[in-house]
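Hello again, I could really use a second opinion on something today. My current little project is about how a certain protein chain folds up. You're getting the sequence in one-letter code plus the fold written as tokens. Here's the protein in full, and shout if anything looks odd to you:
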Amino acid sequence: MDQSLRRKLDRITDILWAGGVTNPVTYIEQISYLIYLKLLDEEEADRELSRRLGVGNGVLLFPGEAERFRWSKWRFKSGTDLRDFVRDQVFPYMASLVQDEPHVAEYFRDAVLEIVDPNVLKQVVDELDEIDFRKLGPDVKGDIFEYLLTHLGQSALNGQFRTPRQIRAFMVEMVDPDIGDTIYDPACGTAGFLIDAVDYILARYSEEPLEVPIYGEEWLEKRGQTLEEAKKEIPNLQTYKKGLGEKIPDWGRLEASIYGTDVSRQMMRISMMNLVLHGIGKARLKRANVLSEMSGLTEDDLNRRYQVILSNPPFAGQIPKESIRQDLPTKSKKSELLFLALMLRSLAPGGRCAVVVPEGALFGSTKAHKELREKLLREYELLAVVSLPAGVFKPYAGVKTSVLVFRRPKTEPTNGAPATRHVWFYEIRNDGYDPDKIQGGGRPETPEKNDIPGLLSAWAEYKATRFQKPPGIEAGSVLPAGSEEPRCWWASFDTVAENDWNLAASRYKPRVAEPVPDEDPAELIREVLAIEKQLTEGLEKLLTEVEGR
């Protein structure tokens, strides 16, 4: 995305802010509506061309009199005529396309135009009209929305904030999604995990995937370097492969395998638009409170099992007991345990899950905490506990968190044997961003301090053994004095069981022995005796003075 496009987006957000639409979630949602209407107009032009050439199915989005609802037909209006037409006619028409275009209808269901000032609406429409989305590749269109989503990073709204990209990236790599996997996020927010999973799959199948730093191309532009130059300066620079996706087999199958839910309708619309602009127009997203008896989920939704689950669910405290779904394998009212229970229930045999949890879920001493952790280790294979730095979610939250990576066995363990044989722990002390500074609503990059490449290297080593031989050393080991603190270690199932199913990495971290002092022990003893002698003489003198009074 070039600077001119970035400046245009800044103008649009500034116009909305000055016009009274100041909530980032709200103005991103409003921009999403208008972008979608522009995209549909451009798609209609493509359908018309296909019709003339005799290819495609020939079905139009705006047939006959409905053509007046196309962006290109009403974008010249102004004043209240523009506002009222978009609000009272265009939006309702889009929501009515339930049979012909269900994804469009779902997007505009209950949609409300909150840009009440006609002049503000006109300015935004004019700015967007200058963008020809057809000429932009999916990467650029995706970057447009990612840039808008940075505004969400400036405040945590209703407990919602985006998971940092570098955290999402390593979680996706650890669960290794592929074509044919159903991929699910039960609290999808802006759909970051779902998009990253698709990008990961695209990279696998693209003939010429583009390698970019985890910080993005803009970071390279600021440094005035190519990727190769940056790698020479920062040898452990974390990168990922951003695929072009042109050679991927069965794109429709991939799109249809993406599932997401979120309780917020605003966030659902934002996530849908994020997916659309990344070229994923037919993902199966639904607004639902997945923890509630009144969730809005169908029987098919409730019974569906997924091969890959990726999530950073909200930690919103306790939920009223009478509202909680009865089919979840926990009696807890805490949202973090309920979400973890939901993922256990929703994982297909052979499926993999990576989920962010608060540290308290790993060592909580209540019956519900212990029972759920025991279930995780006995019935599922807990592959890794990745300890994250305390500041990873700054400036929104400072809570200490970890990532659990586990899979469901393809067949049930026999003879009562636990599915988990050992638990591997990895401690990330630096994630490539400064833990103490906040600049522009986020933390500045420190790529020279980044433990994530080391994590992924150790994970690859672990995976190559079919998860039989965890890297690192066993829990309880004592390292020689002067040794570096270990980054990874492991504990056997029995060891974890003996510790009340505690999964906090620090509980099992091997310690480094204290260095042996260089001084002569005999000399130290003489010094202590001399001090004792001085104390004794002083006390005897004091006693004589007291008795002589």
The longest strand covers residues 347-358. The two ends are 91 Å apart (CA to CA).
